[in-house]
Amino acid sequence: MTSLASARDVPILVTSSAASSERRINPSWTISHLKAKLEPITGIPPSSQKLALRSPGHQEGTTISAKEEDVAQIGAWSLTAYAELYVTSSDPSSVAAIPPPSSVPKYEMPIETYSSLPGTVLAYKKAHQTGRFDPHAPEIKEKKVADLWKEIEAGKITVGARCILPPSTTRRGTIAYIGLVPEIPGVGPWVGVRLDEPAGKNDGSLSGKRYFKCEPQYGVFVRPERVEVGDWKELGLDDEDDDLEEI
Question: What order of strands is seen across the sheet that includes strand 190-195?
Fold first, then answer.
């Protein structure tokens, strides 16, 4: 036999000053039973709870209260799916007075403390001499930077040159910057391209520092291997889009 609770559960949004979550309640519950269920969600004791039900699309709420809360069923308040049940406290010293978690400053472990802990990624890298703890890391870094500059020279990548960004042949633009970009993780030079179409990610600036000028979404920074220099004219409306595979 199907229980009344499983057959008539109604989804609602339970909110308080410190929490918000979707729950399912049953119209056959008494107010006392509902408040007991709400205590672990809101942290407000049943004796201090004040309930207000607000239907979707309505600004004003209806107070849920009765002289005999052990008998009065909440179904008498015409529960609507996804209505908001707002729970406040009559006791200002209760948990409800605690500010929302989003407003509480997050703990940040000092780097000195983290560095001294065993079993961390940092400890593993130190023990196995990987990454920046590799004794050959400086030489590896220098070689990578040198290879990037060689690639720029070999690819005839110069400011003002026309280029495409393979594998696309339609993502075209003009090289506007070559050099270091500290705002982007990684060592070595980057190539700033002013695209012909708004298919980029910036306006030639990063974190407030400008490297070249262009309209928003027309600028992009890529590694030298992503750039192919050539006589790439700006495409017009009548040019065939070789990259178009579906509409």
Answer: 219-222, 190-195, 172-179, 162-164, 228-229
Tell me how far apart the alpha carbons of residues 28 and 34 are, in angstroms, rounded to a whole number: 10
Kindly give, in sequence order, each residue whose CB lies less than 8 Å from that of residue 16, ignoring residues fewer than 6 positions away. Answer: 41, 42, 43, 44, 86, 87, 88, 96
CA angle 140, 145, 148 (to 5 degrees): 125
CA–CA distance, 181 with 137 (Å, rounded to integer): 21
Distance CA 15, CA 88 (A): 9
Report the distance separating Cα 199 and Cα 219, nearest Å: 8
Per-residue pLDDT of the chain (247 residues), as tens digits, is: 444 444 478 889 998 877 788 899 999 999 999 999 999 888 889 999 999 998 877 777 899 999 999 999 998 887 888 889 999 988 876 655 556 666 678 888 999 999 999 999 999 999 998 888 888 888 989 999 999 999 999 999 999 999 999 998 889 999 999 999 999 998 999 999 999 999 999 999 999 999 999 999 999 999 999 999 999 998 865 565 544 333 2
167 preceded by a cis bond (ω within 30 of 0): yes
Measured CA to CA, the distance from residue 126 to residue 115 in angstroms comes to 10
**8 backbone φψ class: left, alpha, beta (φ>0; ψ -120 to 50):** alpha
